[in-house]
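User: Hi! I'm working on a homework problem where we have to compare a predicted structure to a textbook description. Could you give me the structure for the chain below?
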Amino acid sequence: MSRQLSFREDGTFTIVQFTDLHWKNGEPEDQHTRAIMERTLDEEQPDMVVFTGDVIYTGPVSPGVTECQNPEQAFRDAVSCVEQRGIPWGVVFGNHDTEQHITREELMQVVITHKHTIAESGPKEITGEGNYTIELVDAEGKPAANLYFLDSGNESPLEHVPYYNWIQRDQIQWLVNESGRLNPDSQAPKLPALAFFHIPVPEYQEVWDTQTCYGHKHERVCCAPVNSGLFTALLEMGDVVGTFCGHDHVNDFEGTLHGIRLCYGRASGFSTYGKKGFKRGARVIRLTAGKSDFSTWLRLEDGSVVSQQPAHHPGDDNEK
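Assistant: Happy to help. Predicted structure tokens:
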């Protein structure tokens, strides 16, 4: 059974999305990342935090750079400023969290020892660790919205198909079943839902190519080489109004495709690649009870708020 969180008395529920921290051993870059997180939490006072993957970096490093020495401790350190504030938080794993030295199962056991996490390992019979649902109730305790979390994996499981993984068919079926449980056909209108995962789906490229988007695309959409049908399932479910991913550190755009807003987070970590002049930060998401839409903005490392992003129209060639 999924856990529950509550909207505030004023009818709002605010989520801060941190993504791609790439925390390793507490280096100065990690401390700079922590400073961004603390400033964002102080300014936004969120009801929940979601880490959309690559919280830690356990992969190979360049010569002369120290690998992540203790993944368990690295994860605890990375989330500590949220945990210490007592803010409920969820996480989905990225492709670098369990690249080596620790498995997804082992890292999830670290996650669930935290007092304030709402993350769960999820059903053992389906692919991945961290497929779970959070229910949001209004100030009167009535169901108001839902949050879906999906493990988008690491690398392709098929030897002849290189590159990144995709959300598998058994995960999609589980999600469809969860949506049906929380939004039965007899319930109209459906409760709005948001979905969180690390690796973008191919439709992030489609929305950039075919719709007016807002924000930046400084690198390609690094999605799986095949389309597993997740976006189609979301359309058919009829409750998901927005999706949020990370993975591509210098993309932060959002656009609406067939009624679903596809959003990137704003990369938060300094221990990884970026782009000169493209400040680290976080995405903030605000739901309002009784409304199906949401508002969203960026909070950057210097404390500034970006509520209006530049528009990109189909055919513009000023970005990749």
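For your comparison, note the following. The first helix runs from residue 28 to 44. The mean pLDDT is 96. Good luck with the assignment!
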